[in-house]
Write a structure and sequence with these properties.
about 210 residues, alpha+beta, about 30% helix
Length: about 210
């Protein structure tokens, strides 16, 4: 099935989905991120819930990709015992780090605090958070030996957004908090005066030799 056909099929499924899910998806589509973050819909996993919608994002500094991620909205009208609700948000975020930062033993705890702090900073109500923070390093040899060692952080997490009127969570605000997290992981400063202060990653290294 080509991309166009796949997109048409997903659009049809969304149109026939329950109203709370359609309302939540519409709110995601209407959100406007800060200029450094590019967001677009992507194919959603089909087996995690009866209804799913996904976005992928990149944080850019010119031509350099500072971080990337995916946010998935899941919905089960019957409710899900593990979620303690009928909606669930799932994310994967990745970014490269300076080796000194990657060596910090507190880095996983800091990254998890960034996620929960981003939600709390916007006053969002959520439950059942879970996830992992993974760091990995790559060392290059042979024809690639000119490349410096590379380190990467990966955050995988999920949480249940509390439902408001009509059984619909405030997905626009959850997307905004997710963009705040992406910005922190990418090392960007707060988008505007008055936003909650954040701890950002150290200065990133320049483009690497290929």
């Amino acid at each position: 099935m080509d991309d166009a056909t796949e997109g048409d099929r997903e659009a049809m499924e969304t149109e026939t989905a329950p109203l709370p899910f359609r309302t939540a998806v519409d709110a995601l589509g209407a959100a406007t991120p800060r200029p450094e973050i590019e967001i677009e819909p992507t194919r959603a996993p089909q087996r995690l819930a009866p209804y799913a919608y996904a976005l992928e994002a990149s944080v850019l500094d010119g031509d350099e990709d500072l971080a990337d991620g995916r946010l998935i909205l899941l919905h089960d009208p019957a409710g899900h015992e593990a979620w303690q609700g009928s909606f669930r948000l799932v994310t994967l975020i990745r970014a490269e780090l300076e080796p000194e930062m990657a060596a910090d033993p507190l880095l996983p705890d800091v990254c998890w605090a960034w996620l929960t702090g981003a939600l709390q900073a916007r006053g969002l109500s959520y439950g059942e958070p879970s996830g992992t923070v993974t760091r990995a390093s790559s060392h290059y040899f042979g024809g690639l030996r000119a490349r410096p060692a590379a380190c990467q952080i990966e955050i995988r997490a999920s949480w249940t957004p509390r439902e408001g009127l009509g059984g619909v969570p405030d997905t626009a605000s959850h997307l905004a908090s997710w963009c705040d997290l992406l910005s922190q992981v990418a090392g960007l400063p707060p988008a505007a005066p008055g936003e909650a202060s954040v701890v950002t990653l150290p200065q990133r290294r320049g483009p690497q030799p290929r």
